[in-house]
Amino acid sequence: MIITFTANPSLDRTIDLGGPLTPGGVHRIGADRTQPGGKGINVALGVHRAGLPVTAVLPAAPSDPLLALLEAEGLPHRSSPITGPVRTNLTVLSTPQITTKLNEPGSALTPAEVTALEDLLLETAAAGDAVMLSGSLAPGLPVDEYVRLVRRLREHGALVGVDTSDAPLAALAAALPHAAPDFLKPNAEELGQILGTDGALLEQQAADGELAGVRDAALDLHHRGVGAVLVTLGGAGGLLATAGSAWYCPSPPGPVVSTVGAGDSATAGYLIARTLGRSPAERLARALAYGTAAVGLPGTTIPRPDQVRIDASRVVRL
Questions:
Q1: Per-residue model confidence as pLDDT tens digits over 301-314
Q2: 134-153 exposure pattern, b = at least 16 Cβ within 10 A, e = fewer
Q3: Nearest one of 168, 212, 215, 213 to 194, comparing CA atoms
Q4: Residue pLDDT, tens place only, 196-254
Q5: Comparing 79-88, 192-201, 278-287, which segment has the lowest mean pLDDT?
Q6: What's the CA gap between 66 and 44, in Å, rounded?
Q7: DSSP letter string over 192-222?
Q8: Cis peptide upstream of residue 96 (ω within 30 degrees of 0)
Q9: Phi, psi for 182 (deg, rounded to 5)
Q10: Is the pLDDT of residue 260 over 90?
Q11: Number of other residues whose CB lies within 10 A of the CB of residue 163
């Protein structure tokens, strides 16, 4: 079973202006859609659409419209009740291929709500399950929440992955190797946050074919106890460090419609491949194929397997 944990879920509203975004101007919306969002929910949708067993764990009031959207998707989920509403994240699509995101902070959780949410996750996870902890932390959750959950879940016998940024990521990095997850999914910027390097430079170097910087940074995390490190590099592709080695795959060609959810789709692709027992090269190829497919879809749309084109021949071992 794959279990995803979304500490700060959202309603993802995407509006398409069909033209440029002008500060101070008046715009008419060409298209408008609202989808369930939050990094863990996105990952769970990708796994669910691939036909693998998955459960999404999240905080939400019983009457929150997010839960109705999850029901409509047929996504198995368990929610821990909270008093506040789930946040709304607004994505504005404008030309030329510009994505502007406006994210609410989310409702603050009380100490009792935090405890109930943690208990629900630990109750849902069993030995041998893969648990993916994804996204930002809702107000009220301690900055070291993922550090604490990694330790408790591993004591449960679960395999644990983390995809987060900023202060929660810094707290996790500071706790290595004692709270090392089995899987970590940073992008180039987040990799730079962990190691105190310039993430934009790492991504640009990779785009120019200079892979030593990102390879060494990912392997450093791997050697500090992280089982597998998947670094997504935007248009430059992605790199996987695991089993003492590193593999690189350039991004497959494809149109760019919306970048929202692309990293989560890559995570879903990786988890699907790992669950199916695929090799590191095949895991990386599937992750990149899922991310590329997501970029070609509108809004926060997570791809189905028939929309994904996997080509492991593009993967090289470094």
A1: 788 899 889 988 99
A2: bbbbbebbeebbbbebbebb
A3: 168
A4: 888 888 888 888 888 888 999 999 999 999 999 999 998 889 999 999 999 999 987 77
A5: 192-201
A6: 14
A7: HHHHTS-HHHHHHHHHTT--HHHHHHHHHHH
A8: yes
A9: -75, -20
A10: no
A11: 27
CB-CB contact of 184 with 162 (8 Å): yes
- CATH number for 2-317 (one of 3.40.50.10190, 3.40.190.290, 3.40.190.150, 3.40.1190.20): it is 3.40.1190.20
What does the block give as tokens for 218? 């990912």
Instruction: Choose among 280, 189, 298, 299: nearest CA to 234.
Output: 189
Q: Is 304 helix (H, G, I), strand (E, B) or coil?
A: coil
- pLDDT > 90 fraction of the chain, expressed in percent and rounded: 66
Long-range contacts of 275-282 (CB under 8 A, 24+ apart): 275/2, 275/52, 275/130, 280/228, 280/240, 280/242, 280/243, 280/245, 280/247, 281/247, 281/312, 281/315, 281/317, 282/310, 282/312, 282/315
Q: What is the mean pLDDT of residues 67-94?
A: 94
For the chain, give the mean pLDDT.
Answer: 92
* Tokens coding 161: 């992955």
Exposed, middle or buried by CB within 10 Å (0-12, 13-18, 19+), for 306?
Answer: exposed
| pLDDT on residue 299 | 67
* Amino acid of residue 53: P
Q: Is 236 left (phi over 0), alpha (psi -120 to 50) or beta?
A: alpha
DSSP 3-state of 246? strand
User: 142: helix, coil or strand?
Assistant: coil
Q: Which tens digits make up the pLDDT trace of 126-163?
A: 999 999 999 999 999 999 999 999 999 999 899 999 99
Could you tell me the two tokens for 211? 């892979």
Read off the pLDDT of each residue in 273-301 and give the average, rounded to a whole number.
89
- In the chain, domain spans: 2-317
Scanning the structure block, which residue is given the tokens 């190797």? 177
List helix spans (H) across the chain: 39-49, 65-73, 111-124, 145-155, 166-174, 188-195, 199-207, 212-223, 262-275, 280-295
